[in-house]
Design goal:
18 strands; 8 helices; homotetramer; Chorismate synthase, AroC fold; five-stranded antiparallel β-sheet; alpha+beta
């Protein structure tokens, strides 16, 4: 299904970084869901480049809804979001028409699309395409909120600086959703920004880890095989450019645990079934258990760096050197956080629509 | 789509641990692919419980193919595998009809299926259902091999003991496929088995990490959004019971890298485009780059342990204690390795069928 | 998705006419739906060959359920039906290994499957494969009945003899479900049987039209584009071997109507919204309107006839003559009727599971 | 999947008759397919209202492609078509906000979307949405033509006037594609137009039958169950508003045939396997046989007529009368013909992309 994801609701992404417009179609939303254009704009702002730690490319990112909304509410038919591209300096990318940027999709796109891809600014592979996901996500996040489900993502690690982990859900989630730079321990924000700037000054970039928590997801959603909650979330999360790992609950730490440490005991607390720990990240046998869903995404460093790199010429296949110019982010982890929230919302809302 | 996975080829899993039979339907295989029943039996043997480090339940696991194969070759229509259950001691599970085993799907199944699930031996959630995946996988692994693509999985870590990582592909892959206990450094096998036995003696269990390598996958497969190679593989891999994390290439280690370390330089080596390192695990922009695909799966410790645990009574919701009896594995990581190979084969063969 | 159909529930068909077994997997049924093995056997009997007007091949058609049912009720996980083949006289089909029977799939199968298909008795194309659909259908028909929805199909036309159309729903539906030979006007049964026998005596066969009515389907199901109720039903109904046309309500008669005759007026009758006529067959804009769903399927004459025919040799591509032997039906319309009910049930139950 | 159709290629439709824009996303097209904007405009013109026999609403129907095309060719990523709505006289529809037009989707939309639908001009149910299908279809028709496959649809019947059927393929197809009013026998054009005008003068409308032929489709495409060529085509064709029946080859005429008349004999003619007749419409066992594909769609009369009709008030559920004003087509069969071509092209191109 390529650029479409979802079963009960489905998101289709389209557009290229330097084309006329990017956008998304959200199909399957029930009729009568409020669409809050201010909240969409707020979410778009969280994804935007900010200050010295981000790319110099500035886009208005004004989201036009051209279908599926009537009198401020969903009609039940496809909602289409269009975001026009404006600040497209295609001249910056001349050399990149034939030199594959290491860590980017230039080479794989050339092979897959036989040279017909729109290479300008990464084309359809650009992180810019996530703007459509964020617009869709804003509508879905609102819908989830009205069902008592909230989602928050923080930068657990960036440039060697670690934030504390979630220890107070849902308050932690609420606090994140009001922050431009999403850390739980505010003192870490400046340290991370310094690390990012330091890399930028070296003509380099940094990676990081995003940690997401979901509160309020009821027990009983997901399937035992294939459409496990982990499988569905991971499937979608790996679409966030640069995500190269996804782990749930204790994740890779499970490898060094024994069963007696790893198992979460069930307890009845005030007539509600809980687990005393949450190593499983809220998912057992592929199915939600009613506890918070917790997962982490590994984000690789932005591949566009100013340092000179070795690569090949796509037209001649010969070795060459590359000095990337243009406007780039020394880190994307702080901008990707709202994309993680959006993707999570889409997957969970889709699951909730199973009868 | 619940218990069905795939686009060009599709696998449907069915069955319960203590029902009449388990099995799978493999649809979409081209006509004329040889089906080697001996190789199927060999793969099934790798998944079987072996010696002291595994459960005492012994199943013949004889695979009957009831459709889709004619004169030893696929017909192009659905191939159906039936594996009858024989060694089903249902009496062992009496108490488990109403006590939720921590770390298992008993509680989430009760919520999802409203008490109608076949709870015996974990029912449809049992690791036994992976036998169907392995049967399917054997056919697909053979088909991939004839296209020059090989897959191998080793136990990178188990019970605190670490194997070396891949450093000689494809020879490492070939060596693994002839080993019953899959480690690259043979000296680690006994250490790991000791660690497993030690946990068993304590009435406990251990987790681990599986690492998989794929050689020969051509460049250009996968999609930029949603159906990325990472997303598709992760979607399927999280169906392997106990897998709670999946990372590709450098994975979570990317978090502490800078772009200049992380980026894999492209080089033309003997008229073949390679990367000098393989941090990206053979996937860029969601698309294969022609280098080996490398990923790791975190496997949680077997949740069935003999130590007494706290849990709830599913019928009364009251707190209670649980002492699991019956036959269980102190580790499953060594048995899950062939399941990882099988799932990987299914996803990649499906991708290769895209025109 | 080839041999799998459905979204919320999904049916996978497998098997060949002269292989070990045929069957089906029904996934997505909610947990706790009663499975009545007697009713399954009754439905299977309606599909069976009966007396002089049907093939001499007799199959016990005993349906074994090997998964997904526990204590007589669905567990919520895949229900697998296995029907073993017994009365397989493969020697009858020798010449058909290389002569394409006109009107059959022998030639198209040879092209599609490159000669690897199981040609015996039509293989995977055999009408026998519909036995799996009928087994699945029996479970779904019961589930629909418990929601107040009933389905009935009669032979509107066969061998030049016409039955009356529905004029008393739901009583007509109920009466059909107790008849072995499904006509509304019982006097037509013998006439039709005579027409079938007459064709048989000529070494020939006859076609016909099936008409189906559904009562109790609530308004509001279906989609405006693509997944219209007409589109979904037709998609599935064309899988019934020999169906070559599907029309809803007035269908092709609409061509000669004017809008003022064609439009069904809405009326409030006892606080229920009805239409005064039902030319649209219960579907407007692709969505159910709460009136009975009415449609007709054109069924071509059984292509296996005893008269000598012209055809080609599949191995040499040369013209040749063919004298079909073996056991065949001079008509299948009376046997296909329960298949139509089953397919209809599957599509509608799937639709009803949309939230 | 609601408003998305297809497997290898997928079309998503969006928009409302009186919203900001309508359009479509076409995903899965291979890279490097030429996109001829002039041909798109030509196809759009065939769908447009023309002269006295069509609605007075005139739309520029300018198609903007905002993604997926670079240097005049597909890039391999989603192609998005946007058609802005301009001539939207919403004031015409005031009364229709609460009176259900007989034969329209107003009532079923009200039930399905709980009153939140955009009712103006039929909203998402409007025939206007087919403009997106035609834009997509134009690209796909071009791609098919370059593979030697051509499609043509004529008005077999309209207002009681019948055209001749296909008797000279592919010449008949070519001739149709140059005609604004698609009949094979040109003398019938004026008769049909007169019949349409006569109905218009009576404040009424007429229905008809479209017949489509496809030349050059190779043998071997389609599946035996569910994804039969008939099933896939019918699934999509029933999305064309007002289509209420689809039949292939002899279709409903099969009912009165005997097998000896119905079966198409295979013959080797100049080393090419043909059938001497084409009753099966080019499809056997759900699979193309290499002969022309032939099918017919029954089109109901435009439900919007000026004559007074009986209906209900959607807000009060009370009986009322309705006098439709606004601009409407007395027939849509002549405009739907290019939609039939487009839908056919989408389904067949999708099939051809199966490996």
């Amino acid at each position: 299904m390529k650029n479409t994801f979802g079963n009960n609701i489905a998101v289709t992404l389209f557009g290229e970084s330097h084309g006329k417009a990017i956008g998304a179609v959200l199909d399957g939303m029930p009729a009568g869901i409020p669409v809050d254009e201010e909240f969409i704009a707020y979410q778009m702002s969280l994804r935007k480049s900010v200050g010295a730690i981000s790319t110099a490319r500035k886009e208005a990112d004004e989201v036009k809804i051209v279908s599926g909304v009537f009198n401020g509410m969903t009609t039940g038919t496809p909602v289409t979001f269009i975001i026009e591209n404006q600040d497209t300096k295609s001249r910056d990318y001349g050399e990149l028409a034939y030199k594959a940027r290491p860590g980017h999709a230039d080479y794989t796109a050339e092979i897959k699309y036989k040279g017909f891809q729109d290479f300008r600014g990464g084309g359809h592979f650009s992180g810019r395409i996530t703007a459509g996901l964020v617009a869709v996500g804003a509508v879905v996040i609102s819908a989830l909120k009205s069902e008592g489900i909230t989602i928050g993502t923080h930068i657990l690690s960036c440039g060697g600086v670690n934030d504390r982990t979630f220890n107070n859900i849902p308050a932690d989630i609420d606090s994140l959703n009001n922050k431009e730079f999403a850390v739980l321990d505010d003192e870490k924000a400046d340290e991370m920004k310094s690390a990012i700037l330091s890399a930028k000054n070296d003509g380099d970039s940094v990676g990081g880890i995003l940690e997401t928590a979901v509160n309020g997801m009821p027990a009983g959603y997901g399937e035992p095989w294939f459409d496990t909650v982990e499988g569905l979330l991971a499937h979608a999360l790996f679409s966030i450019p640069a995500v190269k790992g996804v782990e749930f609950g204790a994740g890779f730490r499970y490898a060094n645990m024994r069963g007696s440490q790893a198992n979460d005991s069930f307890r009845n607390i005030n007539n509600s079934i809980c687990t005393s720990t949450n190593n499983c990240g809220g998912i057992l046998g592929g199915i939600t258990d009613g506890m918070p869903i917790i997962f982490r995404c590994a984000v690789k460093p932005t591949p566009s760096i100013y340092k000179e790199q070795q690569t090949i010429n796509l037209k001649t296949n010969e070795d060459t050197d590359l000095q990337i110019k243009g406007r780039h982010d020394p880190a994307i982890v702080h901008r990707a956080r709202v994309v993680a929230d959006s993707v999570t919302a889409i997957v969970l809302y889709d699951l909730l629509r199973n009868k």
